Amino acid sequence: MFKLIPALLAAALAASLSPTAHAAETTRDGGQVKNVVLVHGAFADGAGWRPVYDDLTARGYRVSIVQNPLTSLADDVAATTRVLDRQDGPAILVGHSWGGTVITEAGIHDKVAGLVYVSALAPDAGETTAQQYEGFAATPEFVIETGRDGYGFINPAKFKAGFAGDTTDADAAFLRDSQVPINMSVFGTTLTNAAWRTKPSWAVIATEDKAFDQAMLIHMAERINARITKVSASHAVFMTQPKVVADTIDRAAKDAAGQAR
After folding, report:
1. Cα distance between residue 4 and residue 104, in whole Å
2. H/E element, 239
3. Which domains are present in the chain?
4. Which of 69, 137, 138, 255 is exposed most, by the fewest CB atoms within 10 A?
5. What are the Cα distances from residue 247, in Å, to 97, 133, 150?
6. pLDDT per residue over 189-226, tens digit each?
7. Strand bridging mode 151-154 / 144-146
């Protein structure tokens, strides 16, 4: 019998170090989810999340930022999954704009405790991102120019009005000149998963967002049964209203932990 003790101890130690056990322990002992993964959208990169990152890390969160290649939905989901795999416990997965499609597909990951959509797209499984625009008003200030290779940029002359109306001229110019083009074919890719069907969701809607019809944003958020926060901001809400975004993520982390207990 005594020969079994080392084996039992080893098994118990292995169980305590397993990702599932660690996730449960993190939620239970910390009182809330402590990891946040931020996913940027089209025409941008992860650097725009810096104000939200600074706010959340000051609150004690461990924040990771995905750098999407914007080459295909599969590539962006793979980039997000790599970051989720590195989390040491449950995480809130956050997506801005096109990043909403990415977290919808990638959010079935077992580390994801909740989803936050920041002026973001939220298709269903079996739908494309492009279908979300059907029946809603056009956005004349958000002008995309597509090159021969199929990659799109926002028209430079329209960039501030369409993407970053409430930033300074200097910040808008930097965002314009550092924009990352997206393979426009991604909007026609059919989703396989809809994480919002099984994970609790929250949404921040920027009321001065010129990239989407407001009715479209509200329709998507209501369809996924998200808890909605509205704020006066442009599409660059992650830069201009970081506290509102961080407050929503913080609320999601606390609420998701409560549901897990």
Report:
1. 46
2. helix 237-240
3. 32-256 (3.40.50.1820)
4. 138
5. 18, 28, 37
6. 999 999 999 999 999 999 999 999 999 999 999 999 99
7. antiparallel
